[in-house]
Amino acid sequence: MATLLLTLLSAALLASIATMHVEARAFFVFGDSLVDVGNNNYLATTARADAPPYGIDYPGRRATGRFSNGYNIPDLISQSIGQSESPLPYLSPAMSGSKLLIGTNFASAGVGILNDTGVQFVNIIRIGQQMQYFQQYQSRLSQIVGAEESQRLVNEALVLITLGGNDFVNNYYLVPFSARSRQYSLQNYVPFIISEYRKVLMRLHELGAQKVLVTGTGPLGCVPAELAQRSRNGECSPELQLAAGLFNPQLTEMLLSLNSEIGSNVFIAANTQLTHYDFINNPQAFGFVTSKVACCGQGPYNGIGLCTPLSNLCPNRDVYAFWDPFHPSERANRIIVQQILTGSLDYMNPMNLSTILAMDSQT
């Protein structure tokens, strides 16, 4: 009797989910630690943020796997598009049933465009695997809402992808005379990873993505980790700055070329390097006391090693542009997302997120 009741309840739940038409737009996230919300918690890897003081300003002061003191970029975008909650990490056991309807997050700290990026982290979800999980997700969703509704949800969803930084800091420049730096000059490496990224984005489009925000790298040479290793007087690393300066314009050019080929503005280039520059060059204008020293860390600029319970920890995270040696604070993330929402063509090409949402509300 109990088994029959459970079966009937399960069937009723599935039926109610199947009849739901998703009102809030679904949101899918791919990429690295800048957008990971906890997938790596479920993997045997050192690239994790599941212990304090990570999450010190997150609701409940919980370390969730976000590389932030609080909310990260996907959380803030999710809030901006009217979602009641941020999509869960795909590997979370709670990622089932109605949770599938709001989208999911496939990002994994340490990954890059290339499969050999982040090898030191061992078990991470490389971008090809993230795409395979996206296929698997769609199959699971179809079983609940049917193939037609599943396809509609994916086609109408917003997608965010953040890759590229690790292909420099955790690959090309990871060690002196790295394999990739022996294989390519920087001027040849950048077009190579751009061409590989193009394949990733085409695959994403083939899997149904129609509106994709693609963030560039930040100013790689200015993060506290690189200042600690490469800077004598607090100046940004010229070599890593050159890398970012080559990568970001070529990324935008490639995205606009893809849009032209597809015949639609599927891919939106978010110039996060320029946004970072705004508060790195003039932190006081944004209410930061420093854009060089991380809030959590140790050594010069608090840029050495990981953020741990034993690290130096600033009392007020809102006045630091960087939370840890590599990642922006929640407040810096809010500035980045504001530019994604309302930024001019210099920041968002060919349009910002507010324009996308306004256009979609008219269709």
Give the overall average pLDDT: 93
Task: Give the helix/strand class.
Answer: alpha/beta
User: Which strand-content bin applies to the residues?
Assistant: 5-15%
Q: State Rg.
A: 20 Å
DSSP helical segment count: 12
Protein name: Zeta-carotene desaturase
Pfam families: Lipase_GDSL (PF00657)
Keywords: Hydrolase, Lipid degradation, Lipid metabolism, Signal
Signal peptide: 1-24
In short:
One of its GO terms (molecular function) is hydrolase activity, acting on ester bonds. The protein is α/β, with parallel strands linked by helices and 363 residues long. The protein has helices at 2-18, 73-80, 127-145, 147-156, 165-172, 179-183, 186-206, 224-230, 238-262, 272-281, 330-342, 353-361; strands spanning 27-31, 103-105, 158-162, 212-215, 267-270, 296-297, 312-313, 348-349.
